[in-house]
Design brief:
The structure holds two protein chains of two kinds.
Chain A: E1 4-7, E2 10-14, E3 19-25, E4 32-38, E5 45-51, E6 56-59, E7 62-67, E8 72-77, E9 86-92, E10 103-104, E11 108-113
Parallel strand pairs in A: 2-11
Antiparallel strand pairs in A: 1-3, 3-8, 4-5, 4-9, 6-7, 7-8, 9-10, 9-11
Chain B: E1 5-7, E2 10-13, E3 19-24, E4 31-37, E5 44-50, E6 53-57, E7 64-68, E8 74-78, E9 87-94, E10 103-104, E11 108-112
Parallel strand pairs in B: 2-11
Antiparallel strand pairs in B: 1-3, 3-8, 4-5, 4-9, 5-6, 7-8, 9-10, 9-11
The chains are: A mainly beta, B mainly beta.
């Protein structure tokens, strides 16, 4: 089955700086890669996703890049703000018709220092 | 437009007991997936229901079972509870035909004593 590795487990950045979280996946058939943000005690919320026919996607301060050859995808957050502090999860699935079960990484705790 | 809802919010059980958790999908969605999230870990896929049938299953024992009703809502049942079943149980809804994004409910926090 699919295996998703996520790094780093904790990331501390100064407010206003950029943050980058990296994930690798094992199953070359995976074609859907969402990123979720989870605040303490809350549900995971989708922040951005990318499909394998696209190399990069951007939404305001958030961007995701995908390298299918290397089986690697990354989340980039620019101009970080205090409200960006949370745990971020990457995930992968082989979305071949239905919305398949997602395989998640172990998460990155992002800390924004004032 | 209601989002994904789950009940109950919290539940405390003892080892060996059985539990049923409930999920109502987002309006317009017909597929429900269940995940287990242990403390400090990412969610782990349990199974997925569409058209009242289990369509996919993760690496969970058959103590974990489910059901989907004609109105697309779903139940997760866990029998013979173990201490290790203590976790946040999340359901996510989506639309089967569009391979769409999965939206999560608030979860049910299960504690097994």
């Amino acid at each position: 089955g699919e295996n998703v590795e996520q790094h780093p487990s904790t990331l501390s950045v100064q407010e206003g700086d950029s943050a980058v979280i990296k994930c690798t996946y094992s199953d070359s058939a995976s074609n859907y890669f969402p990123w979720y943000k989870q605040e303490l005690g809350k549900r995971p919320q989708l922040i951005i996703d990318i499909r394998s026919n696209v190399g990069e996607k951007k939404d305001q301060r958030i961007a995701v890049t995908l390298n299918k050859t290397a089986k690697h995808f990354s989340l980039h957050i620019t101009e970080t703000q205090p409200e960006d502090s949370a745990v971020y999860f990457c995930a992968a699935s082989n979305s071949g018709g239905g919305a398949d079960g997602l395989t998640f990484g172990k998460g990155t705790h992002l800390i924004i220092q004032p | 437009d209601a989002g994904v809802t789950q009940s109950p919010t919290h539940l405390i059980k003892t080892r060996g007991q059985q539990v049923t958790l409930r999920c109502s999908p987002k309006s317009g969605h017909d597929t429900v997936s269940w995940y287990q999230q242990a403390l400090g870990q990412g969610p782990q896929f349990i199974f997925q229901y569409y058209e009242e049938e289990e369509r996919q299953r993760g690496n969970f024992p058959d103590r974990f079972s489910g059901h989907q009703f004609p109105n697309y809502s779903s139940e997760l049942n866990v029998n013979a509870l173990l201490l290790g079943d203590s976790a946040l149980y999340l359901c996510a809804s989506s639309k089967w035909t569009s391979s769409d994004t999965q939206y999560f409910g608030p979860g049910t926090r299960l504690t097994v004593l």
